[in-house]
Each structure stands twice: as structure tokens, then as C-alpha cells.
Amino acid sequence: MALVIAGCAGNETHLNMGEKEIVFPNGTVFGGASKDQAAALAQILVDSHNQHMAQMQSLNDQLRASSEQNRETAEKALKILEDLSRAQGSGEITIFFKLGSDDITDGSLEYERLVRFADYVARESRGRKVHFVTIGSASSIGKTDRNAILSKKRAEAPVAIIDKYLINIPHDFYQINAVGDMYSPRRADLEVHYRYQHVRIIGFYETDQLPPLPAGI
């Protein structure tokens, strides 16, 4: 699946991914975009990343090419959502785990950090729906398939906690699965490995005005 952007200033811009299309008016500026577009970008991010991870081990040249296209699509969609999160002030948080764990223990420092983040996002929502992208990670210690499962569980770990504290706030989740240990160095001190035991949570609000497309998209 490829990311195709067509259009110039003053014209509609179309973002296509397979059968999915989002229309952005006014060229490279997302003025007048529908409220579904932020969520659609999040879904494109999830689909592209997960397909990239599923294809990257293939020995088939065609699948490898498709995997690279999916990786580029995911990176561009993530960049747009990061810009949106910063512009809205909703921000993001990284929650860390013990080695081999996917538990955010009630009453722990990481639990309290997550609750404060959820509370802040809820207060600032002002009636808007909140979208969360969760990206789990593991270090390269242990078997790769086990780390992929662990990163998926870590992406799921914040969901129940956020649901609890946003019970009266409309919200949904987009989970990046199968990240595993792909970003973790293979040979590093234990202190370095601890940095990859985490879940990254990016929050952003439903909106009809997204930030500009990144240069070169």
C-alpha cells in the first residue's frame, strides 16, 4: 500500500492508501478537513506499520518493496499526528516497565504518571473526542517472537487505566502491534535495555484542522 499525495495550493489534496482516501482542501494546508481525518490518519499509521512488520521478514522482493512503502507511510502519518498533538497541547507520555513485564501496577509511579496524563487530556478535551495511539516496545534481550508478543501487551496495558479515568469522555485507541525489539540495540549494557521497556502514548483530539503536510510528502 502506497501513500499518494496529489494537489497544489488552492486545490484539493488527496491522501490514498489502497482503497482508503482522505480529501484535504486547500493544497498542503488541512483547512476545512472533516473531523474523521485525524482518526483516519491514525488508522493508516496502524495498518501501515503492522503490515510493514508482517512483511519485513519475507524473502520475496515484491513483499520487501511493499514493506518499505508501508514503513514510509507509517512514518509520515506518525509525523503528522505528532505535530497535531504538539499543536493541540495534548502531548504524549512514555510509561516504563520492568524487564519482561507488561504490568502498570496500581499505585506505582508509572501508574500515577499515566493517571495524571489521562486527567490532563480529559480536562483539556472540552467536549472533543480523544484519540490515543499506543506504541509498545521491548529490548533485544530474549527471543524475538517473545519480544513481539511483549510489545503488543505493552501497547494494550494503558487501555484499561485510561478507560477508567475517561469514563465520561469519548475516546478510542489505535494500537501499534509487533514493534517488538526492532529499535533496540543488540549489544548494549543493561541500563540501555531498560530504555526500551516502555509504551509510548500519543494523545490528540478530534479536529477539523490538521497541521500542514510534512515537507516532501
Question: What does this entry look like structurally?
Answer:
The protein has 217 residues and is an alpha+beta fold. 42% of the residues lie in helices and 18% in strands. It has 5 helices and 7 strands, in the order βββααβαβαβαβ. The protein has helices spanning 37-55, 61-88, 109-125, 144-165, 190-194; strands spanning 4-6, 13-17, 20-24, 92-96, 130-136, 171-176, 198-205. It is flat. It starts with a strand and ends in a 12-residue tail after the last strand. The relative contact order is 0.19.
List keywords for this structure.
4-stranded mixed beta sheet, disordered N terminus, 60s Ribosomal Protein L30, Chain: A, 217 residues, 3-stranded antiparallel beta sheet, 18% strand
The residue-averaged pLDDT reads 75
The end-to-end span amounts to 15 Å
Low-confidence stretches: 1-11, 25-33, 180-186, 213-217
SS class: alpha+beta
Tell me, what is the CATH class?
Alpha Beta
In the CATH scheme, what's the topology name? Answer: 60s Ribosomal Protein L30, Chain: A
Summed up, the domain count is 1
Layout of helices and strands:
Layout: E1 4-6, E2 13-17, E3 20-24, H1 37-55, H2 61-88, E4 92-96, H3 109-125, E5 130-136, H4 144-165, E6 171-176, H5 190-194, E7 198-205
Parallel strand pairs: 5-6
Antiparallel strand pairs: 1-2, 2-3, 4-7, 5-7
Helix pairs in contact: 1-2, 3-4
